[in-house]
Structure formats: structure tokens, C-alpha cells
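Morning!

This is the sequence you dropped in the shared folder:
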Amino acid sequence: MEASFDITLQMVTAVFAGISAQVLAAYLRVPSIVLLLLLGIFLGSDGIGLLHPHLLGTGLEVIVALATAIILFEGGLNLDLRELGRVSVSLQLLVTLGTLVTLLGGSMAAHWLGEFPWSIAFLYASIIVVTGPTVINPLLKQINVDRQVATLLEGEGVLIDPVGAILAFVVLDTILNGDVDPIHAITGLLMRLSIGGAIGAAGGYLMSLIFKRANFLSFELKNLVVLAILWGLFTLAQTIRSESGVMTTVVAGAVFANSSVPEERFLRHFKGQLTILSVSVLFILLAADLSIASVFALGWGSLFTVLVLMFVVRPINILLCTWNSDLNWRQKLFLSWVAPRGIVAASVASLFAISLTQKGINGGDAIKALVFLTIIMTVVCQGLTAGQIAKWLQITSKEATGAVIVGCNPLSLLIARFFQERGEKVVMIDTDPDCFAQAEAQNLRLIASSALDTAVLEEAGLASMGTFLAMTSNGEVNFVLAQRAAEEFNPPRVLAVFPRDPQASNSASSKVHQAFVSDLAIKTWNEYLNKGQVKLGTTTLNELEFASQQDHIQEKIRTGVLIPLLVEREQRLQVMPVNQEWEVGDRIIYLLHDPRPNLLKRLSGASQSTPLALEKLPEVEEVPLAKLAQLSTSEASSA
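The structure's back. C-alpha cells below.
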């Protein structure tokens, strides 16, 4: 009874500590793995001695194996084959040539600098080949890096995990059995990848069929069925060929995610929660089992080994694998810096330490210490600085330009014109093929299809665009389109014209902003544009009259004679959201209703076919506060 209670106490402590670290990391906006490692070490035998993972016995290996299966499956779910197609050559090279570069570079550094024997040096290098989605994905979500770079890092993190893990086990098997035949080693690697991939593909297809056709099951039960199948597939692959299960889980997730499964987001949310729990518990347990004395015993040579891995091997890797890509030097520099190691490396190192010790081979604890030193240095240095470096290199998604506009009408064409004149890419989407003539007249690309189709948004290039704007005549449709765009592509700015703020609770709703003004009568303003009953104006908010300018413009918005379209801030043009906080120096571009008769306008030289000219309008520029002050003074003197 006492032994079972000790195990229970260990697990409860690990879960509580892991979730606490996740909460604190979210509050401080730092990579969670940093706090998980520090808290695990603090609770372990080298800290306050509250956690003793060795009490779990072989149960620790079981926990590591099953949790790793969940983590890699969730990583596979995030693999978008259409996105990967954009960087397929570079990604293939990173997983193949990049693996070889890291293996050779890491082993040479460990041997010559860390003074490890060649066998142990190769084993270390095979373990740290992996980067890992458990570190990369949260980091990319936090810093909102350029989509092309994010796709490449995510794809590398997910695909290289099974390759690296299997490679490491092949190297370990070679060391334990004394078989140095390279043909045998390569055959073993390819065999494990093939078996794991085949089982994973079949299993992923089976999971998608269950989600599509088993309508008698609730979503909650479907999620659990998928979990049961996942662990079953993992065990089956491990039974047929040891260590092929890691490939199975990744392929199963990728196949499922790319099978157009309805309501797939429910499974993503469920697996995402399980992944957070798994990562939290594993890192706490593995870090608690780490001997700090063994890390310090490594000496300066091991520290230099990790530095060479970060500053020499990784840049060479990226340079070779992306030399013929369309990535610019900023993107390549960021890729060279960001390669933190994660839970797969920690798990494999812990298991290897146990295997080597049981076989009576020296170096198991040293390898584990060196791997954890690599994890700590890469996560702390790269994880904490990645955001600042991305901003410095100007490759955050907030820097993305261009716009996808749904709805081809006079108002949307006017907005598209401004983006186009600044040299930004604009793509319009509308189901009415008659809009082609209007778009072609302004040299705009138009896709005559429904924006509800994700493939259409993909064709429009939304993944690399800075703005999505839905402004058809149907407000409810606009909001649904914007939600879909936010969920599937997550562009930096998602706006829509809809009649009111929907009281929706899901995360996508918070990303959708109401465009221009509340309850915009888009049909009315399109009629104004068609009849020439508008003026196009611009005004810049200055410091002296900022409050009065803002009040004056807001009054015209409330009376329905003015709608702010765009705001230019720091030389960047953006669609104006309803909740925009205006600042001194903002340049606002707006439409002003001008109801003068058309005859009077023609006499003044304007015509309906003349493009609207951007000008400073006295109706807005001349703030009537001075006149009001004069009136109040004269009234007071007459009294």
C-alpha cells in the first residue's frame, strides 16, 4: 500500500508541477519548456528531493512511450501537405541531408571537443538530430513568424522526430551488438521507416473513416476511439519492428489531418490538451531524474560541443538545405538560429542511459547529461531570443503585406486600389463571374468561386497575405468566412463587414474584427459610389488638435455621412477596424457622403466615370471649434 501511494504521489506531483509551469509560462509569455526543466530539476533529487522518478520503475518507460506517441500524433495533425508543398525541396533536404550534416557535425564536435569515444559521440549526435514540435510549435505561435518559415520549422520538427529517433535506436543497436556494417544499419533504418509509415497510413485512413461515417458516436467518444486506435497502432508497429512506432504516429496524424474530416477541430483540441499534459509530465519527470553533478562533470569541452552545434553545424545545415530555395537571407538566418531540442531527445536520452547501464557500457549518464545540456542551452538561448530576432529581421507575420478581399463591389474595388497602388498583392474572390470585367479594368486578379472552399483561399495565397477582408452584401456570411479564414490560415489581420458583434465564445471569433464602422450599410454606400455621391478624403491627426479632430470625425461617423476605410501608420496601410485606437500621426482615408445633385457635380467638372481623387476635404479638415468659441463669446457679450 505504501509503495502504491508513493507512485501516486510521484504522478500527482508531476502533473501539478507540470500544469503550474505551463500556467506560469503562459502568464510570463516565455517558452514553457524553460520553466518545466527548471521546476523539474528543483523538485528532483538534486533539488528539494520531492520527486524520485526511479520509483516508477519500468512504468517510466511506459509513460514515456505512450506520451511520445500522443505528442508525435498531434505533430502529424499539424502537418498541412499543401503548405509543405511550398517548401517541399528544402524540407526533404532538412530531413535527409540535414540529418546527415547534424549527425557528422555533432559527432565530430562531441569527439574532438567533448572527448567522447566515437561510438558514444555518434550516439549523442543521433539523439540531438531531432528538433521537436513540442518546443517549435508553441514558440512559433508566440512570435507569429513568417508563414513560410513557420511551415518549414514545423515540418522539420515533426518529420525529423521519427527519423532521428529511429536513427538513434539503430546506432544504439549497433553499439550494443557490435555490428558496424553500414549496409545493415541503413537497411534497419529504412525498414523501420517503411513499416511505421505503412501502418500509420492505414491507421490514419481508418481514423478518418470513423470520424466521417460513425455518426452514431458522439464527438467525445470519437476522440477516445482515435486515442485507442493510436496506441494500438503504436504497439502493433513496435511489435513488428522495434522503434517503428514513432513513424507510425506521425504518418497517422498527417493522413488523418489531410483527409478532409468534418469537425476535425474537435479532435485537434482534444489531442492538443493531451499533448500539453504529456509534455508537462514528461519534462518534469525526466528533468527531476537528471543529475546536475553529471552535467557539471562534463567540463568545458561539452559546453563548446553544444556551442559548435548551435553556431556552426546548424548554419551549415540550413545553408546546404536551402541554397536553391526562394528564402531570403533574413529567413535563412532565423532558421539557422532556431533549432531547440525537445521532449523526444530527452526521452530517448533517458531510455538510452538505462539501456547502456544495464548492458554495462560506460557513457549512459554522460550522454543523458550532454543531451539535457543541449536542450537547456538551445531552449533558453533560442527560445527566449527568437521573438526579438524575428522582429529585428522583420520576418514576423505582422510584417506580411497584401490582401484577400471577398466580395467584388465598388467599395471593395476602391480599397483594393489602395493596396495595389502601394505595390501589394491583392486577390479578390466572388461567386459572380460578371465581376471579372470590373476587376480586370483595374488589373486585379479575381477568383470566381466560393470563399467557403479552403482550396480557393489556398489558391488566393491567403497563407502568405497580411489581410483578409470579407465584405459581401451578406453580413452573416462575411462573419462565417472570416471565422473560417482565421481558423484555417490565421492571417495577421482578419476583418469582416457584419451587422453586430456576435456573442461567440470560440477562439476564432476573437480574431475577427468588424471592419470600418458598426452596422455599415454596404449596399447604400455602393449605391453612393455608383451614383458619384461620395468624396474620397484623407486627414492626418496632429498633436495640437488630436482630440478635436477625433471628436469631429466620430461625430460624422455617428451621423452616417462618413466611413473611415484605411489607416496609414508607420508607412503601413491597414483596413480600419471598428475598435481601432487612433494615434497622433495616423493618416486616415475615408469616404464622405456628398448628396449634391449629379447635374451640379457635372457643372463643377466631375463625372461618374472619373476615378475618385484623394484630397483633403474642408468638411473634415476645418474643425468648427474656433467658430463655436467665437459664437459663445459673442453671445456672452450681447447678454
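Headline: Residues 502-508, 603-609, 626-639 have pLDDT under 50 and may be disordered.

More detail when I'm at my desk.
O.
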